[in-house]
Amino acid sequence: MVNETKYDVVVVGTGVVGCLIAEQALDAGLSVLMLEAGPRVDRQTIVENFRNLPPSLRHHWDAPFPPPPWAPVLETRTPGEENAYLDLTGPNATAYQQGYVRYAGGATWHWAGICWRMTPDDMKLKSLYGVGRDWAFDYETLEPYYARAEYALGVCGPTDAALQWPPKTPRSRPYPMGPLPLGPGEQRFTDVMAPLGLQNLPAPQARNSGVSYDGRPACCGNNNCFPVCPIAAKYDAATALPRIEAKGGKLLTNAVAYRIEADDRHKIQAVHYYDPHRTSHRVTGRAFVIACNGIETPKLLLLSKDDRHPNGIANSSDQVGRNMMDQPKLKATVEMSEPLWTGVGPVQGSSILNTSQGDFRSEYAGAMFRMENMARGSIGAAEALKKGLYGRALDQEIRRLSACTGLLVVEHEPLPSSINRLTLSDKKDWLGLNRPRIYYDVGDYVRRSAEQYTIPTLKKMAAALGATKFDLNPEFLHSDHIMGGCIMGKDPSDSVVDVDCRSHDHENLFLPGGAAMTTGGSGNSTITMAALALKAADAIVAQFKTA
Length: 547
Fold this sequence. Notes:
Layout (H helix, E strand, L loop, with lengths): L5 E7 L3 H12 L4 E4 L7 H9 L35 E3 L35 H5 L9 H15 L30 H10 L6 E3 L38 H6 L3 E3 L3 E7 L5 E7 L5 E11 L2 H11 L25 E8 L13 E3 L14 E5 L5 H10 L4 H14 E8 L8 E8 L5 E6 L4 H21 L2 E11 L31 E2 L15 H21 L1
Parallel strand pairs: 1-2, 1-8, 2-5, 3-14, 8-16
Antiparallel strand pairs: 4-10, 6-7, 7-8, 9-12, 9-15, 11-12, 13-14
Helix pairs in contact: 1-11, 4-11, 8-9
């Protein structure tokens, strides 16, 4: 039983949000316990897992992270697996087949490392465009935390202000490192898009550009950012865990939190967890941080219902699990008559974001466009084999498809909607815990954008590239940017947390990260999650100083 010591801060989850808060609390002299549902593994194990995958699984980014029975996640490697954990319903259920990892280090093990900030307008949708919600604070309040997060993660980015995002928005600090160069495919894409008024910007990325940073080596452009960076040039939270332990933090792995305990004054007293033997343990603390992503966090809160909290912990507003968001994605494969050559450098290195801003947002969603920079060798081989070729003809076709095909992607801005809701399924997992059930509809705001804006734009892009084939997948897909289930707001009646990601209902409970995000924007969510984590960490430390 790990209940002999009362920790100052108990953190559930060891991803980027949990690690940033844990380290700041330790630096302030607080004692910290971290709970992780899954195992702790070394990088080489994951690399070897990937190397030993059959070709059919090479592009299933979660495949090198097999989940233990007590910490299941959604898997889609074989027919039927998509229903093995997440219980998905609604008109766009496929668009919420989220991929995440319940390992020490969390989903940053297999993220792309992209760190787009939200814009000032992204945070004022309601007041500017009459849709969605406004954030509880403005961009200027979050900007210093963005800067701190960029230094904490080690973000490289453009030094030229004209190439930075958001545009014409002062930065309190430059990026810690300069940008990585674009590969030949991305550079050609940039050049071709410019006459269309589409500015393809070099992406800020949490990977080291030509120098070591924070003990991690420089990126060598192996184009394997997901499922795993084999040399740790890209930030992942697992690299922070040894430093947290060196500062005195304690880490418990294979510890599945299933209940948050509150006293009769609504103060959180303890977290209960199961070990792999299905034995229950109780840990106590003075402050609690639930940082186990936008699905597992609201699930845990709902699992924790009791007589005093019949709707679950932190849920007097009935908003826990509502407003589930992602950035619905569309993909189009293009084939060209001349080589494009993607695959040099990181898997993603640039994006078009000026398509995410404008007065049209009162009618339909803004969006981010990019051309994926993944090497196309294995994809080209799979397509060539479908043609029944062999020998020299097969080899030539693999070479041609590897050089002359590309993938265009658009990710749409979502709106928070109460109907997009996580509840507890009647179906149980290996531990006997209710699985998450999620209803998801991308909404007319996104559908209008696809019909009127983004699909026509994809076709214009393909034509400008000289594409001889254009194959659009019409189904909305997931981007793995899980947001909204513990939405932030000033009004406790229609939100779950306040401006510091503190629960309105429980003064010593913090729910930072993607679940707290009020709107999603069009860019990747991780750097905003990290900024919210640092803001919450400041509030936690300040709360202890005044206690």
